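Hi R.,

As promised on Friday, here is the backbone we talked about, encoded as structure tokens. Could you run it through your design pipeline when you get a chance and send me back a sequence?
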């Protein structure tokens, strides 16, 4: 048997995960919708960029083998290629009905902004790239203040009535703007937002834990934190300037190498050691204890990384450990 033959017979990470099996995680419902999702959303932001077709397929296979069903992408990721790659994978696996697909519109070069005709055209293009009849959760990727909420909300509602979108949410909105949107929805008699995707992690707490958390609670919005691992800093791989340089990361990660950032990593290290798990798993498990959080959004460049990420949904932190993480990151 040649080396090539051996490589062909070697199982992928996804195949191995499927054989080993995954502990069932309790699904969470997004706000007042009927969308039940795995407590961790797999982002497609690297698909078509740092992950090619083969890597994308193996990442998604591994995620699904661990019980995952919630895939998050956008029409602007890799100029739409992320949606195409996810669509190709779903078609090959014939698993569309078992998944919750979220995408975002508003930032693509072809269809920028949220004017009614542009938004409708963007959704039609996403449906075609994904190869699906409907999008389960559509996010407004920007807060386009040049367009009245009335125009945007009416356009989204028309898509919902046409069966092309099931539910929608915001992705870059302040608490005040979410309140404005809810008032406009009530006045127009159209579907309201059910979800919010926002920047939230152990290093970046103030934005969400202020008025956004209060609004999310009052409107029963399901919250999906993005940048859940702070561009990889909360995986523990960046502990010095040399680490940042070695991984070719820019100033954003370097700024996190502060006393506060390193204290957070030290606390994560201690909790991870107590549970015999990874730093990333602990950081995500902490997010899953927060008010209204349904599923942090994470990405993986390699299928092996998926196993560390999905382990977080089974990790039960003690009250003392949560308190320690709250204190050091506050």
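Update: got your reply. Pasting your designed sequence below so it's all in one thread:
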């Amino acid at each position: 048997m040649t080396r090539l033959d051996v490589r062909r017979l070697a199982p992928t990470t996804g195949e191995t995960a499927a054989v080993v099996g995954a502990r069932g995680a309790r699904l969470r419902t997004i706000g007042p919708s009927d969308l039940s999702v795995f407590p961790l959303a797999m982002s497609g932001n690297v698909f078509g960029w740092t992950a090619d077709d083969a890597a994308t397929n193996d990442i998604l296979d591994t995620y699904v083998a661990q019980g995952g069903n919630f895939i998050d992408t956008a029409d602007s990721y890799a100029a739409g290629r992320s949606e195409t790659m996810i669509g190709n994978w779903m078609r090959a696996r014939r698993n569309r009905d078992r998944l919750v697909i979220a995408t975002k519109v508003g930032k693509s070069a072809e269809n920028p902004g949220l004017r009614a005709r542009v938004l409708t055209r963007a959704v039609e293009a996403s449906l075609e790239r994904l190869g699906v009849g409907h999008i389960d959760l559509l996010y407004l990727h920007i807060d386009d203040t040049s367009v009245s909420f009335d125009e945007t909300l009416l356009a989204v509602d028309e898509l919902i009535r046409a069966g092309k979108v099931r539910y929608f949410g915001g992705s870059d909105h302040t608490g005040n703007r979410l309140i404005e949107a809810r008032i406009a929805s009530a006045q127009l008699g159209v579907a309201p937002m059910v979800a919010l995707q926002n920047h939230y992690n152990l290093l970046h707490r103030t934005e969400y834990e202020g008025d956004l958390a209060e609004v999310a609670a009052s409107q029963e919005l399901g919250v999906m934190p993005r940048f859940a691992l702070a561009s990889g800093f909360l995986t523990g791989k960046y502990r010095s300037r040399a680490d940042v340089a070695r991984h070719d990361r820019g100033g954003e990660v370097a700024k996190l190498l502060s006393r506060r950032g390193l204290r957070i990593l030290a606390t994560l290290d201690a909790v991870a050691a107590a549970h015999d798990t990874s730093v990333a798993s602990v950081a995500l498990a902490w997010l899953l204890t927060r008010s209204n959080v349904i599923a942090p959004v994470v990405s993986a460049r390699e299928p092996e990384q998926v196993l560390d990420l999905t382990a977080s949904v089974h990790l039960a932190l003690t009250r003392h450990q949560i308190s320690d993480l709250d204190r050091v990151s506050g």
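One thing I noticed while checking it: The radius of gyration is 20 Å.

Thanks again,
M.
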